[in-house]
Write a structure and sequence with these properties.
Layout lengths: L9 H18 L7 E3 L12 H6 L3 E2 L2 E6 L8 E3 L1 H6 L7 E2 L6 E6 L4 E5 L10 E7 L19 H25 L1
Parallel strand pairs: 1-3, 2-8
Antiparallel strand pairs: 3-6, 4-5, 4-7, 7-8
Helix pairs in contact: 1-4
Length: 178
Amino acid sequence: MEGVKGGTGFGSLAMVVLVLMCAELVMVPGVSATRWIVGTNMGWTTNVNYTIWAQDKHFYNGDWLYFVYDRNQMDVLEVNKTDYETCNSDHPLHNWTTGAGRDVIPLNVTRNYYIISGKGFCYGGMKLAVHVENLPPPPTSSPLNENSSSPSLTSRGKIVLPMVFAIGAVWDAFLRFC
């Protein structure tokens, strides 16, 4: 039978890739880290009130602060609270400036971070204080009601995996006949 295609090649590879992608979606928990662009569309610049920018945001352990600014004039310095309040950049705890004008501060410790721009720009408002906290624990589930009509976690697991294989089989059959 010359007209029948074999089960190897692109169709089988596509089937394997599809099954692996679906399995990853089922097994991998969501990642909740956020990359905050400081100042959003204004970036790290003068005449922006970063206190107002940060006030409605929650910063969690694992997030990043991303600074976009004019690399020829400004910098990104982490200082203590006193130096933050007085705009003193003489003794920074850390100089996050890399020279590219695109700098990232990983928020990997639960504490207060005080960031300023030196060279006098702090006096123009280029200062940011954020409080980093741990992620809140996931909500606790209420006890299952035996008479509830919604599927339990165990019954959902029994539905998802067969659906993944069924979709993969349909995809493989589609590729064989195309």
